[in-house]
Amino acid sequence: MINKVVASFDAAVADIFDGAVILMGGFGPANGTPSNLLRALLKKGTKNLTLAANTPGMGRAPEGAKPFRKTPPNYDDGGILIQSGQVKKVICAFPGMNRPGMSAPLHQKWEAGELEVEMVPQGTLAERIRAAKAGVGAFFIPTGAGTVLEKGKEKRVIDGREHILEYPLKADFALVRAYRADRYGNCVYQGTSRNFNSVMAGAAKVTIVEVDELVELGSLDPEVIVTPGIYVDRIAVRKGSI
Fold first, then answer.
1. What total of structural domains would you count in the chain?
2. What is the DSSP code string of 98-146?
């Protein structure tokens, strides 16, 4: 019997090893961040991680901008791993806010010389992840051509426009947040929480999904399933935490 549900978040991240490359779903402080998986990884103490995400380390910096508030109050992102010194490198499109009263953990560690940061345009980041998922060897893209981002990259003119060569972002683990899943791993998302989660699911060697609700097989409409179970290795259920 196929059953990808694990007993706890600790069990879900038990084999994440030192030096692993991790994809993290989410889009800033809005929603879709696998907070419980991240907290379990914090507790585990795994170190020298590379964390790839759209906004990997904002932490609670946005709460300094009233009336903007993170909800729910026990939200956590990759900032907890950055702050604890478990992350050696981040790959991201937006490093977070760095204004008086709004300094993100990522900025703090980078300015202290304790963190390597690789900036990637948001669309390029998504496509590098998708390329890893699809088994694409490399691809040319116009974004970044003629800027500092082209440094060290092959360039070609395609249809009269400069393109640069980008490679897939290959990862060991993907930490994904979904709304509902069955024990086979079929997942649906709620609203904008889909964001980077759906493209990251299946793009790493192991995909671990944090869900609000586990449902019976057959209860998910096949027409609305976004992530098929074939892309999912483990499921951990939130059980009312967030």
1. 1
2. -STT---HHHHHHHTT--EEEE--HHHHHHHHHHHHHT---EEESTTTT
How many angstroms separate the CA atoms of 210 and 198, rounded? 13
Confirm whether 125 is domain-assigned.
yes
CATH number of the domain residue 16 falls in: 3.40.1080.10
Q: Which residue has the higher pLDDT, 173 or 192?
A: 173
Distances (CA, A) of 22 to 3, 100, 177, 201: 23, 30, 14, 12
Q: Is residue 242 part of a domain?
A: no
Enter the pTM of the model.
0.91
Residue 206 carries which side chain, given as an amino acid letter?
Answer: V
Q: Which residues span the domain enclosing 135?
A: 9-237
Percent of the chain's residues with pLDDT above 90: 76
Other CB atoms within 10 A of residue 155 CB: 13
Q: Let me know if residue 1 belongs to a domain.
A: no
Q: Which segments of 135-231 does DSSP mark as H helices, in order?
A: 197-200
Assigned domain for 2 exists: no
Task: State CA 66 to chain mean position distance.
Answer: 26
**How many Cβ atoms sit within 10 Å of the Cβ of residue 163?**
20
pLDDT band at 241 (very low <50, low <70, confident <90, very high): very low
